[in-house]
Specification:
There is one protein chain. The protein is built from six helices and five strands, in the order βαααββαβαβα. It is an alpha+beta fold. It has one domain: 3-Layer(aba) Sandwich (Aminopeptidase), CATH 3.40.630.
């Protein structure tokens, strides 16, 4: 964040309210996040038990929550057994956008993946988030695959 500093830590159960607030502070997340925090606690417990998962809470130098992301190391057979971090639910609080936090979060996530043997990073993003897509392109991400979802 330029001359500002921030911390990235593994999200704790007590951080769930902050996490949900950041996920909701987004044009798409506003409609699909929020509500019962108990549901988030169940998922949080499962994520916390998995060593291939890292759910992050990012705070500015004053300790104010300003971002989050979830990283998942995916081992694979393709690409000669390449491991890859899947970057999901990456959000910055609206007040922190444009501060350099986003690129710093990605740099941290990439290093986290490399330290676990990853050779490429991947992410998915809602097609209705053109600003996010421009941002990812500025970080040299290339839209090489088409993804499909089936919601249950």
């Amino acid at each position: 964040m330029g001359d500002k500093s921030f911390t990235i830590s593994r999200n704790q159960c007590g951080d769930i309210e902050d996490l949900v607030a950041i996920l909701s502070d987004d044009i798409r997340g506003n409609a699909r996040e929020g509500g019962c925090h108990e549901a988030y606690c169940v998922d949080f417990d499962e994520l916390s038990a998995d060593p291939n998962q890292f759910l992050a809470l990012i705070c500015d130098e004053s300790g104010r929550p300003c971002g989050t992301f979830q990283l998942t190391v995916i081992p694979g057979m393709a690409r000669r057994g390449a491991k890859r971090p899947q970057i999901e639910a990456l959000r910055t609080a609206s007040w922190a956008r444009g501060t350099g936090l986003g690129p710093a979060m990605f740099a941290w996530a990439h290093e986290w993946g490399r330290s676990r043997g990853a050779t490429l990073a991947q992410l998915t993003s809602d097609k209705q988030r053109p600003d996010a897509h421009r941002f990812y392109e500025s970080l040299e991400y290339t839209a090489t695959h088409e993804g499909d979802n089936l919601f249950f």
